[in-house]
């Protein structure tokens, strides 16, 4: 059985509650279905203090370390929940594309067997 994904949450200019940390863990747990070799996720939360950037003042960056390489997704939003959802969706899309590429490459080498066509006897009148 594979070891669970290690999730490291760091923050800048903001305090992260335990409830939000568990929310992050639940969101990232779904990513294992595409890449079982993912062993660490670094989640960085950042708050922009500039009032002119209020619509995108919360930033979430996720860096996933796996056996095949590193995947990264970043998103901005008015709150951390929206930014986290957008970043997880981007990371999910990347992992899904990488997973599908491997499947297409693997399927290309399999031989396909086509059944021979049978000829229909013609009706003679």
From TrEMBL:
<dbReference type="InterPro" id="IPR036567">
    <property type="entry name" value="RHF-like"/>
</dbReference>
<protein>
    <submittedName>
        <fullName>Ribosome-associated translation inhibitor RaiA</fullName>
    </submittedName>
</protein>
<dbReference type="Pfam" id="PF02482">
    <property type="entry name" value="Ribosomal_S30AE"/>
</dbReference>
<feature type="compositionally biased region" description="Polar residues">
    <location>
        <begin position="111"/>
        <end position="125"/>
    </location>
</feature>
<dbReference type="InterPro" id="IPR050574">
    <property type="entry name" value="HPF/YfiA_ribosome-assoc"/>
</dbReference>
<dbReference type="InterPro" id="IPR003489">
    <property type="entry name" value="RHF/RaiA"/>
</dbReference>
<keyword id="KW-0810">Translation regulation</keyword>
<feature type="region of interest" description="Disordered">
    <location>
        <begin position="97"/>
        <end position="125"/>
    </location>
</feature>
<feature type="compositionally biased region" description="Basic and acidic residues">
    <location>
        <begin position="97"/>
        <end position="110"/>
    </location>
</feature>
